[in-house]
Amino acid sequence: MASDLEAKAKEAFVEDHFELAVELLSQAIDIEPTRAELYADRAQANIKLSNFTEAVVDANKAIELNPSLSKAYMRKGMACMKLEEYQTAKAALEVGASLAPGESRYAKLIKECDKLIAEESYDTPIQKTTTQEESANEVQPENVLPEQPPVAVVKSKYRHEFYQKPNEVVVTVFAKGIPRENVTIDFGEQILSVSINVPGEDPYVFQPRLFGKIIPSRCRYEVLSTKIEIRLVKADPIHWTSLEFTRATVPQMVVAPSATGINRPTYPSSKPTRVDWDKLEAQVKKEEKEEKLDGDAALNKFFREIYQDADEDTRRAMRKSFVESNGTVLSTNWKEVGSKKVEGSPPDGMELKKWEY
To answer: 0.85 cut: is pTM over it?
Structure first.
């Protein structure tokens, strides 16, 4: 029966009925869940529907079931390219090319990946943006449709939330009492895939395209009695305003100036921004110098200027006299204060007292 469904799915695919093809292949998978070819075919149908995250998950499953199935690597590479995960795409395509040396599409796609990786690595982090003209000229392997924002398949069976640290995002899925063997979690450059399959229950699938890129090899998860805790290591120190990627928001990266005084662009702008830090510093110093203060603020500024322009002996004298006199004496003569303790000298009409601890 699964073979009949597979045949009907192929007919639907040829007639461009991709949603029907996905549905028929899903039914076939329910009957034969260990057939890698079914997952690889469904991955291709999902690519046609621009469901790229789902395509990656299907391709990964096909590879898990049959590591020598070359077309699974092709599907994964194509979907990852659409998700701008070029390193992952290239790795998958290289494996597929070794399994199918006569397939010329691998070389073409690997070359395209190399080009995109080179563009992305220039003044990283950079997010490549494609104009309408570039999209029209872009090589579309196997008639893949132009990229559209992927839609994560989320079922409300389990609630999830996230919080973040400077270099890490922690995602919690509140699934109680789930055995570890029923949980499958995959990490991509900018993809998180969470699947929970409990016998007798509808599967739970959470496959968001993430707000920012992560380092898959350093990500980890833990299945606890009341929840699943997933730790995503950020590839770039940016603040995630949400868990999922949207084109309406632009992540901002705080980058300290480099030794050469050149600031890298904020993520993910493709146009490097240069900041003249010398000019900025001179402007700040000019404003500080021209700032008019009065009272204690003016006096403190006067002392700061003396200290800043003083030699080392003068600075030592100022520090020693100020500390030993409890802030009542400030001397610039090291020969006078260096060899003795500086006694406090309170203003007229005031008495100097020592604090008791």
So the answer is: no
